[in-house]
Amino acid sequence: MSTTYLEAIREGLWEEMEHDPNVFLIGEDIGEYGGAFKVTAGFFERFGARRVVDTPISEAAIVGAAIGAGLMGLRPVAEMQFADFISCGFDQIVNFAAKCRYRWNASVPMVVRAPSGGGVHGGPFHSQNPEMWFVRTPGLKVVAPATAYDAKGLIKSAIRDNDPVLFFEHKALYRRIKEDLPSEEYTVPIGKAKVVREGTDLTIVTYGAMVWVALDAAGKLAEEGASVEVVDLRTLLPLDRETVSESVRKTSKVLLLHEDTRTGGMAGELAASIIESVFEYLDGPIVRVTAPDTPVPYSPPLEDAFLPNAEKVVEKARWLFRY
Amino acid sequence: MSAAELAHKCLYYMALMREVEDRIERKLYRQGKILGGVYVGRGQEAIPVGTALVAEPGDVLFPSHRDMAVFLIRGVTPGRILAQYMGRAGGVTGGRDANMHMGDLNLNIVSIISALAATVPVAAGAALALRYKGTNGVVFSYFGEGSTSRGDWHEGVNFATVQKLPVVFICNNNQYAYSTPLCLQMACANVADRGPAYNMPAEIVDGNDVLAVYEATRRAVDHARSGDGPYLLECKTFRMTGHSAHDAAHYVPKDLLDEWGKLDPITRFEARMLAEGWGTQTEIDELHAAVHREVDQGVAWAEQSPYPEPATLLDGVYESQ
After folding, report:
1. Which chain B residues are Cβ-neighbours of A65 within 8 angstroms?
2. Which CATH number goes with the domain that contains A149?
3. Residues in chain B closer than 8 A to A67 (CB atoms)
4. Do A74 and B115 touch (CB under 8 A)?
5. What is the ipTM of this complex?
6. CATH of domain B3-299
7. pLDDT digits over B67-112, tens only?
8. Distance, CA of A27 to CA of A7 (rounded, Å)
């Protein structure tokens, strides 16, 4: 039976709740209501108010309480109703949670789930991709799965991890993709990228919902005779630089793709990393396809223009092939 | 514990905190052996002492930067605290952080961060965990009156009261947040006035009377431990120094300092001990002499502690690297 991306997250959470009594959920409207996106539907009935804690509208308190519970040895999973609201808990994440281990050797085994991304006509405050605010915060781990398989495997790894993990789940994927998942238990390691399509002429490095855009573009480019490799980062911090470098050594051409805005986006760090490690393998400039440096607009024609898509990727790839 | 035993403990920890902080601020800092920010709780020692002496081992403490005695009471030696201030490997954080920015989960002490009110929701979460695990532990959440202006203070207190969590909120109201006086910090007269808005009992305590703090803390802890939810203690005191060692605090009216100087918690408590017959002047003198020797040893220990190796810079960002 096929499992959606949303169901996969749900299954991962459920299994970890069954597996470890120290795992509990905390967030807004996650209890009887089941969460804004229904990721936690049915959890309250099964696990009760002790392990599914509904909170006031207080992101700093949600994250702060998760940190405190984590310090005491529990494994809290905090839900931000939308990733956009994570800024209200920013200090707790970047100054409290991220620095505990380095400063005083204290574990904060906490997961913050953050439904992120555009393409759902959510407008400027329900569509953002704020991952890079956290990717440049040492002490945090940041994951952004693209598939149902990885979503389930990574949420389980995140819960078992003894460091704070931010889990960016893409809203546009929730019910749009599905696949058959293994019936036996599995996890996906944090910190490992994956080559999701092999090729020899061009590497596209991306993550989250843009993996699907990359695969779509790779299919179109194949019709033109180009063999495109797609690397899904899966984890943004710590970054799997080696898998990226290895692919570049093979293809010598790189297109970096993300839905996040351009300046200070992951593409910048990837480009620097590629230049530092495999510069001599490149036979063309490193190119980027990203959202522009604007807030995420609401109206469909504006949002469509904002979001990267397969056409934009194909066009950029053709330019690179002509270079 | 007899009244006399309790009195000796109170005096010992207040005197020890005073002596360690005096060495830090008036000697080691001025000698250039301590760099960066130095914040002391001179004149405010009754608050950490009177509260932390009530704590059971399973209770979790979140001391603020004027609460050094919490560490001393939990058994952290003066030497390790002094090494912490001097950035040495033997300090509580091994040189990773400075001054009172330290914690030790083995002692159930959680470290502050500089944005002090940030500990309040974390304290609420620790209390949630203590209840979750079925213990009867209580969390002691310390902060200054300035912290109560912050949004995360209110979020943390609101969450704790909604959930009826076992937390005692302990406010050190020393009347100044850096240079900002109380009247520019809040429109109500007392921090305790904030309690009713959260349906939380709140009590104003003479923060320069260690036994008053001790007794009020017992009431607060009994309330929290019995499952009745949080309790707010506002300990009124006065900051007898600048915000930090570099701040001459010219903005504090001198008559206020003179007035509060007469209420010094240590000299006041010594008079009480003599009056109640809990100790003699000779015993008090001997206690101070012993404290002095203990801190001498601590300074010597800290000074011989090496600096951390630069090669360890990258260690410990994550559990496994």
Report:
1. 121-122, 124-125, 128, 156, 159
2. 3.40.50.970
3. 121-122, 125
4. no
5. 0.97
6. 3.40.50.970
7. 999 999 999 999 999 999 999 999 999 999 999 999 999 999 999 9
8. 19
Which residue, among B122, B150, B319, would best test binding to A if mutated, counting the most A CBs under 10 Å from its CB?
B122
Catalytic residue check, A19: no
The answer to whether B102 contacts chain A (CB < 8 Å) is: yes
**Alpha helix locations (H) across chain A?**
5-19, 43-51, 59-71, 90-91, 100-104, 131-135, 148-160, 210-223, 241-251, 266-278, 300-306, 310-322
Find, in chain A, the residue whose alpha carbon is nearest to that of B134: A50
Tens of pLDDT, residue by residue over A216-237, are 999 999 999 999 999 999 999 9
How many domains does the structure of chain A reveal? 2
Chain B partners of A105 at a C-beta cutoff of 8 Å? 93, 316
Which chain A residue lies closest to B156 (C-alpha atoms)? Answer: A61
Element (H, E) at A75: strand A75-79
Domain assignment present for residue A185? The answer is: no
Q: How far is B211 from chain A (nearest CA, A)?
A: 30
Domain hosting residue A122, numbered range: 2-180
Q: For tokens 């010598």, what's the residue? A: A252
